[in-house]
Design goal:
Number of strands: 17
Structural class: alpha+beta
Helix content: 40-55%
Shape: rod-shaped
């Protein structure tokens, strides 16, 4: 039960980790994009300011030489002043100056023109084109970022000068400071060689990120980029213009920190669920097992103590209650049947040793011995002994053969007593001799016929014991007499009553014992015929090779 929960929990952690990591990476990429948008705006303003200066070729040519008429000088001064004003509209933080290789006349007009031969020599074109240069400088006014755009005659490879556009260094630092609050450190690389780098915290660039790593990030095709030499950081990148590149660096522990918290909570919840499920399962198991254990204990007590046990009820309203009550009722029925069997055995024993019967038998032996003094006395004593011995046998179920032998001992005694007054015949199929019957089932019926049918009032003269198979799984043993004085309705009432008159115990006892051992489908019935009365015992038939059911003796 716990294994699926653990598997689901582990799968949930893995799935959550992947989803959460992707979401955090996407969030980091979005933060970098926002910064890149602001910096790209500044880049476009630089380009606009540069393009505004170099597109006027006549104005640019004024810086080729200082030997021009005064009118041209004034005109050039006005143009430069107008340009400076326009740049302020583009970005108020820009400061513009023009660098030439020799002193220039525009300096006299108070315009931002200065000479720096060494700088221009470093900017001389290689390969026939002028390239921008980006440098960071620091003077009395503070640190500045400088956009240097050389200009001149490209065809003749002649450099006239350089347009310098400055912006405070902190302009970039402030833009890149906001992502620091969420753990992302950003770097702005302003040239393809990664020589000029602006870090977000304003520290020296070389100590924070290596140019080689920047080059690897620039060449990467998928992001986030993971440095193989340092897997603790993830990198994101946005290109700005043709030269600049914005890099976002975020420690993986920063990405995984919220995820680790989620995983901790998830593991805690899973462990809590496991503990709760275990307690709940143990409680449910105990709740279901207690009634079963109680039933098992009752069954063991039933085996050891027999019928004299009390089976309590349980206060439940579910399937366990139905199961418990069903087994309880079954045990109570068994208890009742065992008590009933004991009562029948006791009453049968009392019936077999009925003083009246013993008196009659002994009286017959007495007068017969007195009259004849012959071996009949021996036969009577032998039959009586066999009859009593068979009747007192503890087995409740016997074969038809044994039941007929017991009956024959009784018939022999009655033939001696009632010699010549009636006839008793037995006709039972040989195939029924090994079938089962409750002990002392035929003798009470034969005795009933002798007592109530073989007299002058009833006019009976013969009793027949018959046995035949009536179907594939039943057979019938019948006791027929030709007496005519039977009260059929009274006999039927006796068979139907649960508590009959003790005087009518015999036939009722036979009927109930058969049903007790073989089921309600079997038992004793009575019917009138044209020639007399027949008591029929219906019993189950078991074919050859069939094992007889076990009966509690």
């Amino acid at each position: 039960m716990l294994i699926p929960l653990i598997v689901v929990g582990a799968a949930n952690i893995v799935l959550t980790s992947n989803i959460f990591t992707k979401q955090l990476e996407q969030s980091s990429d979005i933060i970098l994009s926002r910064t890149a948008t602001e910096i790209e705006q500044i880049y476009r303003e630089f380009e606009t300011a540069e393009r505004l200066f170099v597109r006027d070729e006549d104005f640019v040519s004024t810086f080729e030489t200082s030997d021009i008429p005064i009118v041209k000088q004034v005109e050039a001064a006005n143009q430069l002043q107008q340009y400076v004003t326009k740049v302020q509209y583009i970005n108020s933080g820009f400061r513009v100056s023009v660098i030439v290789n020799r002193p220039h006349y525009l300096t006299k007009y108070g315009l931002p023109v200065r000479s720096d031969w060494a700088l221009l020599r470093a900017l001389e074109p290689s390969g026939g084109e002028f390239k921008r240069v980006f440098v960071i400088r620091e003077d009395s006014s503070g640190r500045t970022f400088n956009w240097l755009a050389p200009f001149g005659d490209v065809v003749r490879h002649e450099l006239y000068g350089c347009l310098e556009i400055q912006i405070p260094y902190n302009t970039f630092v402030k833009i890149m400071a906001e992502p620091l609050k969420v753990g992302q450190v950003q770097y702005l690389a302003t040239d393809k060689e990664s020589r000029t780098i602006i870090p977000a915290n304003g520290a020296s660039a070389g100590t924070l990120i290596k140019p080689g790593l920047i080059a690897a990030i620039r060449q990467s095709e998928s992001f986030p980029y993971h440095d193989t030499s340092n897997s603790d950081n993830s990198y994101f990148m946005r290109k700005i213009g043709d030269e600049w590149m914005l890099i976002g660096e975020i420690p993986r522990k920063q990405i995984l920190s919220p995820l680790n918290k989620v995983n901790q909570w998830t593991i805690g919840i899973i462990l809590s669920q496991i503990a709760l499920t275990s307690l709940l399962a143990a409680g449910l198991a105990r709740n279901f097992s207690r009634p079963i254990q109680r039933l098992a204990s009752l069954v063991m007590r039933k085996k050891n103590e027999g019928a004299d046990i009390y089976i309590p009820q349980i206060a439940r309203r579910d399937e366990i209650r139905e199961l418990y009550d069903g087994i309880r009722e079954l045990l109570m029925e068994i208890r009742h049947e065992q008590i009933q069997k004991r009562e029948y055995q006791l009453r049968l024993l009392q019936y077999q040793i009925n003083p009246h019967f013993l008196y009659n038998s002994l009286d017959t032996i007495q007068w017969k011995a007195f009259e004849h003094r012959d071996r009949d006395l021996t036969d009577m004593i032998r039959n009586l002994s066999y009859f009593l011995r068979s009747g007192l046998n503890q087995a409740d179920i016997v074969s038809v053969r044994d039941e007929l032998m017991h009956l024959n001992s009784y018939i022999a005694l009655q033939n001696i007593r009632y010699e010549g007054q009636f006839t008793i015949s037995v006709s039972v199929d040989d195939g029924l001799m090994d079938q089962q019957i409750t002990k002392i089932s035929l003798q009470p019926l034969v005795e009933n016929s002798i007592m109530h049918a073989m007299n002058r009032h009833s006019g009976g003269t013969r009793i027949e014991i018959r046995g035949k198979r009536t179907s594939a799984d039943t057979f019938v043993l019948s006791v027929f007499d030709d007496g005519q004085a039977l009260d059929l309705e009274r006999v039927i009432r006796i068979l139907e009553k649960r508590n009959p008159d003790p005087a009518s115990f015999g036939i009722r006892n036979v009927h109930e014992r058969i049903q007790l051992y073989f089921g309600d489908s079997y038992g004793l019935s009575v019917r009138k015929t044209d020639s007399g009365t027949s008591f029929d015992i219906k019993l189950p038939y078991y074919g050859p090779g069939t094992q007889f059911p076990s009966v509690n003796q």
